[in-house]
Specification:
Length: about 425
Amino acid sequence: MNSLTKTAVACAVSLAAMNAFAETQITVATVNNGHMIEMQKLTPEFEKAYPDIKVKWVTLEEGVLRQNVTQDIANGSGLYDVMTIGMYEAPIWGERGWLEPIDTSGSYDVNDILPSIRGGLSYDGTMYASPFYGESSMVMYRKDLAKKAGVTISDRDSWEHIRDAAAAMNDPENGVYGICLRGKAGWGDNMAFLSAMANSFGARWFDMDWKPQLESDEWKNAVNFYVDMLSKYGPPGASGNSFNENLALFNEGKCGMWIDATIAASFVTDPKQSKVADQVGFAQSPYAVTEKGANWLWSWALGIPAATQKADAAQKFVRWATSKDYIKLVGAKNGWGAVPTGTRQSTYENPKFQKAAVFADAELKAIKSANPNDSTLKPSPYVGVQFAAIPEFQAIGTTTGQMVSGALAGSLTVDQALKSANRSADRQMRQAGYY
């Protein structure tokens, strides 16, 4: 072998070695919620376990995230290798072949995932997104303010009782508002809350012929009640508040009650974040005429778009971030009251979690009580509690949210808002060929 050949061979070996250890960079799109921000902080732990993979984060506000990932996956652009999606997107996109099936083999222990959460992220028995955390909704309230006002908050109170309690606790002169609720427009913002509330008033999005029902008495009763209560006993500018804004208000001690995602419980009981951590009580969501659909069911989950060129690395990240070991990692780093919840039965059976999480029983009870297959008093043709699992719903829910937010802000009457929303929904359903 001459020197030239030896040099060529050496270069080839060196190049092969470099390629063997070449970094694969995956881009993860996620929402700017507390647990996701913590996942980003723990990225070095993943990169330590997989030194050939680097993670680039794109963190967005909820509404912007939904728009971006929907556009990306529909166009097959491949901008993201992992995207944060939920129970609405996973089965629809899975059916269309837009998502890679999640690798649930071996030590991942897919059967440990709560059945309702696993089912909501699956299509035809295949899981197309893996739950990072799961949630329902429940009442979080200030025990000290309730006692001072002489009111009690219990599981499954009537909405009338909640309104009266909000009135009793309302003290705007001292910066305390009786109730904080989502008002910001969006199918996953105000309409997530309001759909569940409307269910309890006997409402449904569509009848069995897929005709929108937004002008029904049930919807009018629910939205009028909501607008009146939040206008009288809610914080100023409520039409601009969603989860993060209300979380900040509650943690500052400005809300007597807050009805929202169970995942908030770990934040409002954390003395590092909440000024009222030792005064928080929990109760199951209220209802008006039926308990059906009174509290929602959701999971923020990690999905892998079929257009990715880095599926293997993406699978490794998803399995890491949604594993039992990740939950243990967060528990060890930040305390067991701070772990992402609502996904695995083993979390709720862990004595360390039970001791740290005063909200555990209430959270699990809420999640287990939500039934996406039977969420309305009258028969409905769709699956979903706070959404209808059809492709058209995203646009319909967004428009409805804008109309309702306008009613809350006072620029429309409730009747005008629902009439406009119903007309828009009817047009969408006709164009889509439902009737």
